[in-house]
Queue: 2 jobs
Job 1
Amino acid sequence: MRSLTLNQEYSVDLSTFLAKLADPGVWEKLGSDASAEYIDPDTEMTVRTPMPKAELPSALASRLPDNTVLVEVYMIPGDVLGDEAEIRMTARAAGVPVEIDAVLELREVESVTKLAAHAEISSSIPMFGPMIEQAVVPILEKRLGDRLRRFESA
C-alpha cells in the first residue's frame, strides 16, 4: 500500500465549498460525468472520468480497454457543525487492479477552506502489487493535484 497527501486552499467558506462538491455541474466543467444521490442530509456524488491511456504507464495501458473510466464516489456531509468536515472517497476503474481510498479533511479559517487529502493506493495483484501501486502514485498525484487546483474556478 502506498500513501499520498495533497493540500489546497480555496477562497470560499466551508458551506460554499461543500455545495460546489455536491453540484454535478461543477464536476462536468472539470471534464467528468457526475450524478448525485441524496441520502438525507448527505450527498453521495459519483464521478466518472475517462482515463486516457497516454497518462498511464505503458505496461498498464496496454492491458486496458480504450474506454477505461475512473469511478470516484464521494460521501459529502450535508450537516456541518462548526468549521470542520470530512469527506470519504473511494475510486476504482474496471480492469485496473488498483483501489484508492481517501479522506478529505476540510477546515475553514477566516472564510478560507483548507483541504488536506490523504489517499491510500492498494493493488490486489500478488507479487506485482507494490510495483503497480508505485506506478500509480505519481499519476494520482498529478491528476488529483490538477483537479484540486482547477476546482475553485469551476
Job 2
Amino acid sequence: MVKMVRNKKSQKKQETQKLSGELAGPTAVRHLWGRGSVASGLTPQRLANLLKSAAEGDTEAYLTLAEEMEERDPHYSSVLRTRKMAVASLPVTVVAGGEDSRAQQCAQDIHRLMEAPDFGDLVDNALDALGKGYSVNEIMWDRTGVKWEPKAYS
C-alpha cells in the first residue's frame, strides 16, 4: 500500500513537471525549403482529398493552402485583415461574477492581465482561426508567487 502511494505521488510529480514547460510552442506550417505549393495545380479532386485528409487529422496541406490563399488573394487577405482588426479593436469588458469582494478582485485581476502588452499577441494569434477554422494557443504560467500569472503566450 505504501509503495502504491509513493508511485502515485511520483507519477503526479512527473505529470506536473511536464506541464511546467512549453508543450505547444510556435511552429510554422510551411518549411523554409518547401515541399512545394499546395495551391498550384489544385484540382477539385486534389481539393477533395486535401479536405478529407484534414478531416481525418492530417492538416498540414490544409493549413498550407489556407496560408497560400491569404498570401495570393489580395481581396481575401483584405477581408480577413478587416475582420481581425474589427475584433481586436473592440473594447474589452470584464464583469464580476458577483457583488462580493472576491468576485470583484477576480474581475480586477483579469482586467489587469488583459491590459498586458502580450495579451494583444494572444488575441491576434487566436484570430488566425478566422481563416483556418481553429487556432492553438498556449499560456506559459509563472508559478513562483501565490497567484499564478501568465508569463508568456505562444
